[in-house]
Design brief:
This protein is mainly α and 193 residues long. The mean pLDDT is 77. It is flat, with a radius of gyration of 22 Å. It has helices at residues 7-15, 19-28, 36-57, 61-68, 78-85, 89-100, 103-112, 120-142, 145-158, 165-192.
Length: 193
C-alpha cells in the first residue's frame, strides 16, 4: 500500500497531461494501474491509436502524427507509434487484413512483426475469439445444437489464427462435453421408445 502514497503525485501528473511521467510511475508502482486515471489514459490512447490508423489508411499522416503526439514520449507506446507513423507497408496490409477479416494474412503478418500483437485491433480480435469460446460453453451447457453448430463454424474461421494452447484445450473440452450430452439425450430418448 506504499504505492498509494504516490497517488496524489500520479493524479497531478495525469491532470497536468505529463503522460510520460505518469506511465513511468504506473510501471514502477503497478497498483496505480488500477486507478481511474490510468484506465482513462489507456482508453484515450486506444481511441487515439484507432483514429490514427484510420487517418493513415486515408493518407493523412500529418493529422495522425498530431493525434498521437501526446504519447510520443511514452516509452511503452513508442514502438506502436513508430509502427503506424512510418507507414510500414506490412502494417497497412495488417490493418486491411483485420478489416476484411482475412485471418490467415493477419497470422502471417503477426509472425513477421511481433509489435502487431499490441495493436488495439489485434487485441479486439483476441477478445472476440474469447467471447466466442464463452458462448460455445454456454450453448453446450444449454444443449442448443443449432446455435452451437453456428458458433463452432464461426470458430473455424479463427482456427487459422495461432491460438493459445489454453484456448485450444478449452475448445476440445467443450466439444467433448457436448458430444457426451448429446449421446445421453439420444440414449434417454431411445429408452423412452
Amino acid at each position: 500500500f506504499k504505492a498509494f502514497e504516490f497517488y496524489p503525485q500520479f493524479k497531478n501528473l495525469y491532470l497536468e497531461n505529463k503522460l510520460s511521467l505518469a506511465y513511468i510511475m504506473a510501471k514502477k508502482y503497478p497498483v496505480l494501474q488500477h486507478t481511474k486515471q490510468f484506465k482513462t489514459m489507456e482508453k484515450t490512447f486506444k481511441e487515439s491509436y484507432i483514429f490514427a490508423q484510420k487517418l493513415i489508411l486515408m493518407g493523412r499522416k500529418d493529422v495522425a502524427k498530431d493525434t498521437l503526439s501526446a504519447y510520443a514520449t511514452v516509452t511503452s507506446k513508442k514502438p506502436m507509434i513508430k509502427l503506424i507513423l512510418n507507414q510500414n507497408k506490412e502494417f497497412i496490409e495488417f490493418l486491411k487484413a483485420i478489416n476484411k477479416k482475412n485471418y490467415s494474412l493477419v497470422d502471417t503478418l503477426v509472425k513477421k512483426n511481433d509489435t502487431f500483437k499490441d495493436t488495439p485491433s489485434y487485441v479486439a480480435l483476441q477478445k472476440e475469439l474469447l467471447h466466442t469460446l464463452q458462448n460455445i460453453r454456454i450453448l453446450i451447457n444449454k444443449v442448443k445444437r443449432k446455435k452451437l453448430l453456428r458458433a463452432s463454424n464461426y470458430l473455424l474461421i479463427f482456427r487459422v489464427l495461432k491460438m493459445n494452447y489454453r484456448y485450444y484445450i478449452l475448445i476440445l473440452s467443450f466439444l467433448k462435453s457436448f458430444k457426451r450430452v448429446i449421446k445421453k439425450k439420444i440414449l434417454s430418448h431411445a429408452m423412452k421408445l
